[in-house]
């Protein structure tokens, strides 16, 4: 006669039976708590602890990288009215330049919040010329002309593309917790 192994309950949900264990700490975890990693299933605590080891940004990285992103995005937005035909091509290039400049300034230190801060600074840097384009298009519409709408669309396109490119260039692949 074979003995049955003792029934395990989830460490986080004591009312759920499970046979799954964390590959690092051996805690019993239910499928809701299990996070698939390349080395097996892990509990939220082990993944969070490992992720903190990879967040290496210092407090001043947020300030310096935000300033760099703000200034470079502002400079890039000045070229859109002059090079309107190339806006769809130049905006992702500008986003890449911003991301790589920020990465060089922070010496490749990283943090999820750092990337979000850089994205917000990039969007804010493109905002002044976007606001000018909005006011110009409103004035043009009031006078019966639609010429300002193209400038507005190009500035909006620049803002979206430069911000999203900078963020995704920096963030890369992430494990969701």
Tell me the series of helices and strands, N- to C-terminal. EEEEHHHHH
Low-confidence stretches: none
Class by SSE composition: mainly alpha
Tally of individual domains: 2
Measured between the Cα atoms of the first and last residue, the distance is 43 Å
Radius of gyration: 24 Å
Proportion of helical residues: 55-70%
Shape: elongated
Q: Report the β-strand fraction as a percent range.
A: 5-15%
How does the major sheet shape up? 2 strands, antiparallel
List the total number of helices. Answer: 5
Description:
The protein is 60% helix and 6% strand. It is mainly α. The protein folds into two domains: 8-54, no CATH class; 59-171, no CATH class. Strands 1-2 form a two-stranded antiparallel sheet. The protein has a two-stranded antiparallel ribbon with strand order 3-4. Strand 3 (35-37) and strand 4 form a beta hairpin. The longest helix is centred in the C-terminal third of the chain and has 31 residues, at 112-142.
